[in-house]
Design goal:
Length: 221
Amino acid sequence: MATAVATVEPSPVGDMFVSISGMIGAGKTTLANELGPVLGLPVHEEGVIDNLYLERFYRNMKQYSFPLQVYLLNRRFVQQQKIVWNDKGGVQDRSIYEDLIFAKVLHEIGEMEREDYETYLALFRNMSRFMSHPSLIVYLRVTPEESMARIKARSRGCETTITLEYLQKLYKGYEDFHQEISKTVRVIVVPWSEFHDTEKVAEAIRRENSQMRSLRTVHLS
């Protein structure tokens, strides 16, 4: 992927709040860090290194699925509200709403108890009353197979237990989720099996955001 070019003058988009959405290994953090300077917006990363539960979760999903999801929900809620309160906008490398996809899949595959899942949903619904939606969600669409290849390429030790079957279920969840969330938040779908130039992505976001109302797929090639 092309890196942000120092000679490119940022094109500010006011207090626009962009959430980068996508499967594990899609490249959200990389794009967010390149896109922020081009759009003239601060970048807010997800944070993996200091995650208290992630490694334990991948060793024992059933035991740690609920505490991990609650932990992530709390952190992302704080991050999202910070973006809104700072009134400067920003680019966020994973939206708070994506956690719903993971919780749903974990429940479906038997790695989260029904009571825990229902408790999580109730907590999310209560917190959502205080949330401000992003201006825009940019969904980086990659296939489960490509997601798996990128996970293997980046070699994070805790992710070695991820299976293709798990990613296939997440992919379906992502596809269904973006159809639904587009009724509330504008969504740009970017085919991301191949990386594209950051400036092209930024220009597509500026262009589509100015004229779109719900969900739109952009073609960058």
